[in-house]
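User: Can you write out an input/output pair for a complex, sequences first and structure second?

Assistant: Here is one pair. Inputs:
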Amino acid sequence: MIYIVIGFLWLSICLYVILGGADFGAGIVELFTKKKNRPKTKVIMYESIAPVWEANHMWLIIAIVILFVGFPEVYTTLSTYLHIPLVLMLIGIIARGTAFTFRHYDAVKDDWQKVYTQIFYFSSLLTPFFLGLIAAATISRSINPNADNFLDLYIFSWLNWFGIAVGLFTIAICAYLASIFALRETIDRLELGLMIKKSQQTMIFVVITGGLVFFTAYISDIPLLMWVFSKPLGVMATLFATICLALILRAMNNQKLLPVRALAGFQVIMILVAATYQHNPNIILFGNGEHLSLLEHVAAPKTISALGWALMLGSVFILPFLFYLMISFSKQRR
Amino acid sequence: MAARAQMAMSLGFHIVFSCVGMVMPFLMAFAHWKYLKTNNEIYKGLTKAWSKGVAILFATGAVSGTMLSFELGLLWPTFMKHAGPIFGMPFSLEGTAFFIEAIAIGFFLYGWDRFNKWFHWFCGFLVGISGLASGILVVAANAWMNSPAGFDYVNGQYLNIDPIKAMFNEAWFPQALHMSVAAFCATGFAVAGVHAYLIMRKKNVEFHTKAFRIAAGFALIGAFGAPLSGDIAAKSVAERQPIKLAAMEAHFETEKGAAFVIGGIPDEEKGEIKYALKIPKVLSFLVSNDFNHEVKGLNDFPRDEWPPIAVVHYAFQIMIFFGVVMIIIGIIYLYALFFKKEWLNKNWLLKTFLIASPFGYIALEAGWTVTEVGRQPWIIYGIMRTVDAVTPMPGIQYSFYFFTAIFVSLSLIIIFLLRRQIQMVPKLYDPTDAQFNDKNKKS
């Protein structure tokens, strides 16, 4: 049963990164669009996320619930030592969710729209950044429970170059996913061309920030290269991700847009696999050499089995319904 | 202390958002059902208007809920470390219910004229059902803190954990019932009040009258259900947490045939209550159906296990007071409905509802204060003290200021937005209005 629970945890994190990430990306892409193209981009982006955006963010809640029910030690460690970035990320989530809603449900359209839009942009940028930062902190050995002063315990547990690089990389991934997903929402050649160009730009951004991640890992003595390339699965995942890149470029030129989406999702999953597989099942690596493991630091068996059943039962209800929602709204425009 | 204040404040706001989010969909689905039955376009407009309110509040309820799921760990890591695996069950089911709600709301808001009308209606209704289910589940988790179950506490260790037993603890049913009924009451009165005001302004009278009738109907169910469910809750508290009951009533001495205390100023030092109105034997009767039942007083408990008596007592009094006022309003409204139809259009009746619009929420918050502050100094009743559960990180007060600022601004924005929705009623939602223009509508 524990493996089912871990599976769900992993699945919800992946789905959050892909769907939620594309959602954040929508704001990022819009922010980095030239003024004259913005209204058009906004419409395309809105079409691609509107009916499903609430559901996308549920994956985060599912992941958190799994963590605190099944792996309370992991959850409390994160929330104690990474208190500050978590709060900052929360603010991003709140500001973004509300600004998005207000942007579309405010009955009167006037200058307030500009305010919502600004909030929407910047929170779309901040949230994934801190998400990446937090993820980086779990494996960079920067959390040190033995430290005895405020700065080491609560600030330098997350503030380092590697974290910042991973944050930027996450932003890049989000923007990339959003522009890829939006390809199918375009209505004519002109729009399609615009979005393809965007996808290529964000792709370059992903590669650059990815390089930055490896560079900062190298200077901070984090053996990232070894983690990724020392075992066959890591190498395979990296290989797949690279092949996907080529396939996506090809499919884009042929305007085969559905496979592009699937490939991009797959690619991101592969990146996650490559980054996390090596220290699996250890989820948090501490500065004092210890670690928290998903297999060892786990709740009582009865809790895990109840949680597993609840998750399976839940997915019976949720997944078909969610799938139907996505299908019914994705065939509207073309 | 700052952590407790932050939690109280976050929950205080979240309750309002989520109760509206729980009950509004039912109002909306009811109006929608009326539309499907009568084909009256006004009901359709009303459904759409309310659905926008639901959307706005759902989004804020969702973000404040997300915040809370993090805050639990950010503020109370020690509590979550031990309690998470035990009382997490309702949370994982709540996640499911909430997810369904999010999907259903997507279908409903964007699904006009796209789906079979009854499927569409069902989605709206489902928003309400799953919202209600999540509310009940979350309250079950809170009830566990009042009535811990599903584990054995041996020498500071939590053994033999059984999350299912923990979920169906003794307190969950009375608490969940009382909370749901109170949510209907509070939201019913709030919505009825807003529409009563708009009828008085003589704007879109027919539209708002229909809205008012529906909302007032829900308010009635809540107002009459609240004391009944409250009675069940009180009996359950008396049995499980006698000290909380004693604090609610500022009842210091153990006695048989205890009096029901109304008002008064409790004095914790001297252990007495001044200037209170006492109705002999009623408290004993209320908790046990027996006028001579013995009710334990605060003096029978160690001093360091007392909750803040004055806060609990006043909060309880406030809840009772507004509860009674709402019942009276309910009776007047019922009387008008069946015997004096002409009263329904009278300004004084509408004015009463306008004034009463916040009453439900005041009572709701007061009741919440009773159950939460009444549990202090424990975070898990009888097992873990609140002071032992708090995060070791210093500087929590800044986080408190920060979150307060966020919640206050959120609420202001919501009020602002809802006002603008209301301003747009003539143009967007009321088909009988001269300014009505269907092209303004996007979805």
